[in-house]
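In this section we walk through a basic example: taking a raw amino acid sequence and producing a predicted 3D structure, encoded as discrete structure tokens. The instruction is simple. Fold the sequence below.
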Amino acid sequence: MMPSLTPDFLANIPIFRDTSEEERNQLLQVMEREHYNAGDDVITAEQESRGLHVIVEGTAHVILSVYGFTNPIIDDGEAQIVDRTQIATLEIGAVFGEISFFDGETHTASVQAASDLDALLLPAAKFEELLKQGNYAAYKVGLNAAKILAGRLRSADKLISELILAQHDSLARSRWFGSHLELYGRAGHSD
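The resulting token sequence is shown next.
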């Protein structure tokens, strides 16, 4: 059963940090309540949906599809899914679906309810409507989401760098540094 969702309850969830009680009330008015049974798929990799999910009760697993080639020595075309692996467990207050929420592309990972799961969904269309109205709560949620994404990107960047450097594979290192240069070159700089 979903807990009583009050502005005070939302105050302890990072995505709603620095929002006033009135702003959290405004957000509750546009958010949808969701319930999933243990084992249900909440979002599926490679599929489209644009909503920001916030766990209010239960846990969920993030499952990443691992792509590879039939022959890893020769790039023989389109990479295929060779494995699926759980990369994280999300708990109360966690946010997911944020990449597709902002860029409108398909999901990069799947999220499955690990237990009975209650969540709030902020549909992208309603969020964008709030932004057009100049709603400060929407701006604050966007800023908090950017901070969450930046932290995840920083962690992923560090982990990938450590994995690549540990490989002692000059081709892998070259590809990593080249893609890094391309990624940050487009942005103009890195910190």
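Looking at the output, two observations stand out. The radius of gyration is 19 Å. The helical segments are 7-11, 21-30, 98-103, 124-132, 136-167, 170-187. In the next section we compare this with other chains.
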